[in-house]
Amino acid sequence: MKSGIITIFTLCFSVAVMARKEEELYYSKTQPANLKEEKVTRVGFYLHDILSGKNSSAVRIAHDNLTRDANSPVGFGSLFVMDDPLTLGPEIHSKEIGNGRGMYVSASKEMSKFTIVMYADLTFTTGKFNGSSISIFSRNPVAEEAGEREIAIVGGRGKFRMARGFVKIKTHHIDMKTGDAILRYDATVYHY
Ligand SMILES: *[C@@H]1O[C@H](CO)[C@@H](O)[C@H](O)[C@H]1NC(C)=O
Ligand SMILES: *[C@@H]1O[C@H](CO)[C@@H](O)[C@H](O)[C@H]1NC(C)=O
Ligand SMILES: *[C@@H]1O[C@H](CO)[C@@H](O)[C@H](O)[C@H]1NC(C)=O
Q1: Which CATH number fits the domain that encloses residue 126?
Q2: How far apart (Å, rounded) are the C-alpha atoms in residues 143 and 181?
């Protein structure tokens, strides 16, 4: 009788333990994050987005047949993949400090308001932030204003883990015929 009760008790106990174990398999205990103080770092460079030539850094991988504009390499509905070098100076042969990899899509039906939406990871390959990156997920209103425009930083890796912030972009040079562009990026990165 006594051993029977003990057996039942042991069984219930192991079922409870097993249920707890099972839960613990896919999530941890929720605890305060105790994040360190947030820091800010400013990062500046040039991004070269070269569509023309044999060694282009961005290529169109899809476009819509209906809206395709023969006069524009970047018509509404065009999707590009990019592996754009990031350099210290505006010349392509100035010191390379990283690369921007990802995609952008031409997403404005009004060509006078040429807008792209970018999904990109900018990774640094030298210096203090070697191996760290900032993640861009943003509308980029390329033609909307004359001077400066802004895109959003939504995350990052390495030293920029959990980053947020923004990048001010200025067009240093653009060839409207080919779409080749050299852009000045001034990023303000908040990170831990
Ligand atoms: C092609 O582009 C890559 C990356 O920008 C560069 O390292 C390489 O030197 C270029 N090759 C030629 C032949 O220009
Ligand atoms: C796409 O457009 C081109 C040029 O207007 C046309 O020749 C071709 O048949 C179209 N393709 C499709 C799948 O509609
Ligand atoms: C950057 O990091 C990579 C990977 O850790 C390493 O191979 C490379 O030598 C580093 N470059 C510089 C310039 O520190």
Answers
A1: 2.40.480.10
A2: 13
